[in-house]
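We modelled the chain as a single entity of 259 amino acids. Its sequence is:
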Amino acid sequence: LLYLNISYLKKATDFIPLTVKESGIDIGVDNLAAVFVNDKTTPSLIIDGKPFKHYNAKFNRLLSKLNESKSQEVLEWGISKTGTKYPIKYTQKGKDINKFISFLYSKRNKYFYDQFHKVSKRIVEFLHLNNVTDLYLSKNLAELKNNGECELSKSVKQGFIQIPFIKLLKNIEYKAQELGINIHWIDESYSSKSSCISDDIISIQLNKPKSTNAFNGKRVERGLFLDTLLNKVFNADINGAVNHIKIATAKSFEWLKNS
């Protein structure tokens, strides 16, 4: 198997827009991307993430079965300095299983590489067609694999770590910059817990509240967010995308009360 990677430099479009229009993107597992554009006419965009989630889950189930079969094909074991056993030599069937596992990893990587290039292109086209000039993305998610800080449940963590969201974000970044859209990386902490209308997300991030009573809203079933102050329900991921803009610009989104 041979791969050819070509790297090149391309100068980003350099211009000063007459008007500024912001957009925020919230990345997730069930909804791969929720895109909000800060105007009163552009519809929000939600991209289904379940096909990628199911693909990854199917891969993990198959991998688990193959590893179980491979463990029964060990001819010789070694002992590490800590006393842990590890396989040294496999039967021919065990070697074949190893090759098949390598093939599956390669296939999965190519699948996400292809799909996330296509998804990122469509997202950036949507932003460009709606005259977006500034885009706000999660710095926390982009650094998730590197900083080792991932306070999520095991099942959710598996999805976030194994599905290459960083690749998706980086694809969006360079494609947007090619079209003259400015990229801003923000701290998204508490953005999914806070109401984009009633809560002051900047103050919440500064104070880092431990109690849920500090928030004017909460997630409810089927991916919805309830603003308990307004008694208004809206999409939880779009709420996060709006908060991305709010964190960076401190703008008020009072107009969303009547949207």
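As a brief sanity check on the tokenised model: Strands lie at 22-27, 31-37, 45-48, 74-79, 85-90, 134-138, 182-186, 217-220, 224-227, 232-235. The first strand starts at residue 22 and ends at 27.
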